[in-house]
Specification:
Layout: H1 5-17, H2 20-27, H3 31-45, E1 50-51, E2 57-58, H4 60-84, E3 92-98, H5 100-105, H6 107-117, E4 121-127, H7 130-138, E5 144-148, E6 158-170, E7 191-194, H8 199-209, E8 217-219, H9 222-230, E9 235-239, E10 250-254, E11 260-266, H10 275-288
Parallel strand pairs: 3-4, 3-5, 7-8, 7-9
Antiparallel strand pairs: 1-2, 5-11, 6-9, 6-10, 6-11
Helix pairs in contact: 1-2, 1-3, 1-4, 2-3
Organism: Saccharothrix syringae
Family: Belongs to the LysR transcriptional regulatory family.
GO molecular function, one term: DNA-binding transcription factor activity
Length: 289
């Protein structure tokens, strides 16, 4: 049984894009070439590796092959990088996964810096909640990720920010124009909880304030959360890095209770890093120093 690298590239691209046409565009080849590569892979394995549909998804065998396929492509990228070292800087196409607030405040300048310093490296950004980002990095869908409060970060990880939580209020709220707000003083307002990965910190804020944690609504998207606060549905607690995302008629106010989170830029914990990923993190560390 011999599986070729083009087949592996096509398989991973279709699995990631959930579409043959999108995979073809990402690889810069025709959709017919992608289909032929997948068909060749399935002939070699003797079984289907993808379920055709909308979206396209891996079969159970495909799921088992996918982790190994990603590792193969990482190894190939490393070989290609060694061969290109005489040409100058690192090269490659990387995926960076990050939560919305990091995408909003931390990454635009960093991406611009990388683009100027490493013209041979292309970085695609995947935005997701904290658990999704961790899953993408562990599952090899991402080469780099911004993790929130990681229990264990590998050597070479870069601390990007320490981020304190704030109250988000309408501008006409009685507490919007003063100083720091005590979470206990918000107890009479309906509370909206963001489900993007902040529940642990929000529970801790309520505990420190000695007040009941009783969200009336649980909202996944920050945009929806801000719209509901703007409409007068309630108040919320959000990371400070969300400042600028709230839009008109809302303010972010510091809290008396100081609870925060740490955002760390890292490569994968349990598999080799793409050579270009290591170069990007070294650059980020030097920039943060």
């Amino acid at each position: 049984m011999t599986i070729g690298i083009p087949q592996v590239r096509a398989f991973v691209a279709v699995a990631d894009a959930a579409s043959f046409s999108a995979a073809a565009e990402r690889l810069g080849i025709s959709q017919s070439a992608v289909s032929h590569a997948i068909a060749a892979l399935e002939r070699t394995t003797g079984h289907p590796v993808l379920v055709r549909g909308n979206p396209v998804r891996p079969t159970p065998l495909g799921e088992r092959l996918l982790t190994h396929a990603r590792a193969v492509l990482t190894a190939v990228a490393s070989l290609e990088e060694v061969a290109r070292r005489h040409d100058g800087g690192p090269r490659g196409d990387l995926v960076l996964a990050a939560p919305p607030t990091a995408c909003h405040r931390l990454l635009p300048d960093l991406l611009d810096h990388w683009r100027a310093e490493f013209p041979g490296v292309s970085v695609s950004l995947f935005e997701g909640d904290d658990d999704e980002v961790t899953g993408w990095l562990d599952g090899a869908s991402a080469d780099l990720a911004v993790l929130v409060d990681p229990v264990e970060a590998p050597p070479g990880a870069v601390r990007l920010a320490d981020d304190l939580f704030h109250a988000v209020l309408r501008r006409d709220h009685p507490l919007a124009g003063g100083g720091a707000v005590d979470v206990a003083d918000l107890e009479d307002d309906p509370f909206l909880l963001s489900l993007g990965g902040c529940e642990q910190q929000v529970r801790e804020l309520h505990r420190l304030a000695g007040t009941r944690f009783a969200p009336v609504h649980r909202v996944r998207q920050l945009g929806t959360l801000f719209a509901m606060v703007r409409a007068g549905t309630g108040v919320s607690l959000v990371p400070g890095l969300a400042a600028g995302m709230e839009g008109p008629d809302l303010v972010l106010v510091p809290l008396v209770q100081r609870v925060g989170r740490t955002l760390v830029l890292t490569g994968p914990r349990h598999r080799p890093w793409h050579p270009a990923a290591a170069a990007l993190l070294t650059s980020a560390r030097q920039r943060a120093a």
